[in-house]
Amino acid sequence: MFEVFENTESKVRSYCRKYPVEFNKAKNAELFSVDGERYIDFLAVAGSMNYGHNNPEIKAKIMEYLSEDNVINALDMYTAAKEEFLVTFNEKILKPRQLDYKVMCCGPTGTNAVEAALKLARKNTQRSGVIAFSGAFHGMTLGSLAMTTDRTSRGGAGVPLANVTFAPYDGTLDSIAYLKWILEDDHSGVEKPAAIFLETIQAEGGINVASIEWLKEIRKICTEQDILMVCDEIQVGNGRTGHFFSFERAGIQPDMVVVSKSISGFGMPMALLLIRPDLDIFRPAEHNGTFRGNQLSFVGGTAGINYFVEHQVDTMVQEKAKIVEQFIKEEILPLDSRLSYRGMGLLWGIDFGKINPELALDAVHECFDRHMIIEVAGRKDCVLKLMPPLTISEDTLKEGLAIIKEAVTAILKKNN
Ligand SMILES: Cc1ncc(COP(=O)(O)O)c(C=O)c1O
Question: Residue 109: CB within 6 Å of ligand 1?
Fold first, then answer.
């Protein structure tokens, strides 16, 4: 049935193995197969479709731009589309949050912006090591992969992954005490790092939510010890947690912020590094790349920010979060006392680890059989990860939650 893909495309393909169907249409939180079958989307292209598939307001701006022979790709030359994006991002996102960052347009994938952050942290501090956290996911190129912890991803590197010291994430062992110890003990064996890289919620890591106290403590340690704090907002930014930036809830300002996925509004490739102005010391072309000027991403990005502000997506997400949390508490947890859950905004995880980690993947299959696209995350893939587009209608959200309940009920029954 999928011979073309199986015979022609590399074995590295992955998501298609979990969702063996050929898609061609998509609207908000619904995907449609070539046969016209409808699927509810609780994956949102791994967080790149926060404003919904084919969001009409964003699409209209892109169509208008396309219809006028405007420039489509331009390296990093000055363009009208980039100017409008930079002004909009500054005026509507950064300034209202009292954030002052220079914007570096990186190569189009998140991992490229993480590489830029690594280079810039090293260049500024003249130190080579960095600290990252167990459970982290920062990307698949060598620098970011060195900070990514899952063994499958690391196994693909083929060379030693170096210059990273891992510390336990919030909630694991005594994270802050351990961090302080490796930084302060002159016999810890760890050189002073250039930066500490973190996700405020480890999404791929299993929806591990860092506490506000922990985030503030890391900020304090970084300031006191002259270490740069880099926040990876690639998956949890753009409104996902109920704030534009996920670190806002802690009232902290990272020294650098990596943004990608939904920043382009429409699912186009785009990645940015936000840099504290005094750290902006790359020489021209020192982190270059052909596809740093996708104008459709800038146009979609501007429209996405306008959509976020005009529709108060942050408030919308906080409201929908209540629906999801209440459903999990009242309808899912009672199914088995060993189930637990974590999350915020429209990013939630149901943890099967205490029953049998494999059940989370079984739940994915059961959901797929009921026409829902949903992923697993975390250690041994034991967490069912709920991440719909932020614009999902309440009806579709509730329909999706009901499917999850049916799926979890079915797998628990089979497991007994
Ligand atoms: C937190 C985080 N950092 C980095 C990346 C890498 O982004 P990309 O896949 O666009 O390279 C991802 C991708 O899922 C991510 O979730």
Answer: yes
**Is 204 touching ligand 1 by the criterion CB < 6 Å?**
yes
Q: How far is the CA of 402 from the centre of ligand 1 (A)?
A: 29
Q: Are 356 and 380 in contact (CB under 8 A)?
A: no
Of 378, 69, 330, residue with least CA distance to 208: 378
**Does the C-beta of 242 come closer than 6 Å to ligand 1?**
no
Residues 10-28 have pLDDT tens digits of: 999 999 999 999 999 999 9
Which tokens in the block code for residue 277? 């102005």
Mutate to test the pocket of ligand 1, among 261, 263, 385 (most ligand atoms within 8 A of CB): 261
Q: Rounded to the nearest whole angstrom, what is the distance from the C-alpha of residue 257 to the centroid of ligand 1? A: 13
Q: Where residue 1 falls among pLDDT bands split at 50, 70, 90? A: confident
Distance 30 CA to ligand 1 centre (A): 23
Nearest to 45 by CA among 313, 240, 319, 247: 240
Q: At residue 416, does pLDDT exceed 90?
A: no
Structure tokens at 187: 């016999």
SS3 assignment, position 131: strand
Q: How many CB atoms lie within 10 A of CB 412?
A: 19
pLDDT > 90 fraction of the chain, expressed in percent and rounded: 99
How many Å apart are CA 276 and CA 125, to the nearest integer? 14
Pocket test for ligand 1, best of 15, 137, 209, 245 (most atoms within 8 A of CB): 137
The CATH code of the domain at 3-55+313-415 is 3.90.1150.10
Closest CA to 55 of 262, 347, 239, 270: 262
Q: State the Cα–Cα distance between residues 169 and 365, nearest whole angstrom.
A: 30
> Which two structure tokens, joined as six digits, stand for 78?
């000055």
Q: Where are the domains of the chain?
A: 3-55+313-415, 58-310
- pTM of the model as a whole: 0.98
Gap from CA of 377 to ligand 1 centroid (Å): 13
Of 304, 310, 224, whose CA–CA distance to 48 is shortest? 304
Decide if 62 contacts 266 (C-beta within 8 A).
yes
Separation between Cα atoms, residue 215 and residue 229, nearest integer Å? 10
91 CA to centre of own chain: 24
- Determine if ligand 1 sits within 6 Å of the CB of residue 260: yes
234 lines ligand 1 (CB under 6 A): yes
Burial of 36 per CB tally in 10 Å (0-12, 13-18, 19+): exposed
Spell out the CATH class of 58-310.
alpha beta
